[in-house]
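Weekly sync, protein design subgroup
Attendees: M.S., D.O., the rotation student, P.L. (late)

Item 1: inverse folding check
M.S. brought a backbone from last month's batch and wanted to see whether the design step gives back something sensible before we order anything. D.O. pointed out we never logged the input encoding, so this time it goes straight into the notes. Structure tokens as presented (240 positions):
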């Protein structure tokens, strides 16, 4: 935002705080969607932020394709600053990066994910031409200031809300919550308990063994009855 001469600007700032639960630290950064401060090394910055990562990536890509960097890029002492002859190369490199981000995603070229813990600020500004006039509010203006040949601007900055917005990244269902939910659902629909587990074991093992034993016992009894019938038949006298 630029402040022009003879303008009155009123700006509102809204801080946005983002934090991440420690439980998701074991997740892959791509799956998590963010980097912690010590997970991504930056050559020119001590603290990782998405903006720092993008600036360093732009500097590396420009130096790779053009052999130099812009004066606004972070750089080492051995990296020269691009002159007017490299303007076309720098512009082409920036266009190629933007084209790749549009085609494959915003994080394709640099893979700069947001910070897991970050503080950002949203700004909203309103401005209009302002004719400065001396009144009681500005009675402290030095007498040596020539108001006829001086342009005066005013900027007022304040908070848009009395409270701030805070978001937190966390697992939708953690490991403990997942186990608890599964147990609750099984308890609700199956009435599962330790007694029910023993019943399942009983019907899977003991019941099958008992049924097999009963079947063998019944076959043995049928075999004995058949033997007795044949023996009685042989003892009866033959009548022609």
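Designed sequence read out in the meeting:
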């Amino acid at each position: 935002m630029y402040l022009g001469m003879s303008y009155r600007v009123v700006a509102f700032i809204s801080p946005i705080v983002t934090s991440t639960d420690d439980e998701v630290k074991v997740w892959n950064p791509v799956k998590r969607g963010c980097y912690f401060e010590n997970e991504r090394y930056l050559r020119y910055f001590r603290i990782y932020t998405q903006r720092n990562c993008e600036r360093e990536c732009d500097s590396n890509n420009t130096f790779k394709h053009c052999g130099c960097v812009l004066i606004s890029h972070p750089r080492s002492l051995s990296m020269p600053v691009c002159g007017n002859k490299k303007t076309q190369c720098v512009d082409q490199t920036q266009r190629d990066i933007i084209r790749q981000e549009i085609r494959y995603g915003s994080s394709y070229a640099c893979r700069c994910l947001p910070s897991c813990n970050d503080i950002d600020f949203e700004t909203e500004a309103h401005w209009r031409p302002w004719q400065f006039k001396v009144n009681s509010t500005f009675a402290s203006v030095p007498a040596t200031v020539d108001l006829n040949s001086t342009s005066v601007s005013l900027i007022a900055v304040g908070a848009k809300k009395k409270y701030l917005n805070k978001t937190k990244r966390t697992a939708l269902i953690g490991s403990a919550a997942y186990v608890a939910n599964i147990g609750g659902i099984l308890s609700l629909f199956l009435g599962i308990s330790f007694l029910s587990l023993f019943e399942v074991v009983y019907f899977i093992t003991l019941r099958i063994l008992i049924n097999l034993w009963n079947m063998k016992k019944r076959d043995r009894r049928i075999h004995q009855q058949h033997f007795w019938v044949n023996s009685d038949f042989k003892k009866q006298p033959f009548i022609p």
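Discussion: The chain has a mean pLDDT of 77. The helical segments are 29-32, 50-66, 87-104, 175-190, 194-235.
Action: P.L. to compare against the previous round before Friday.
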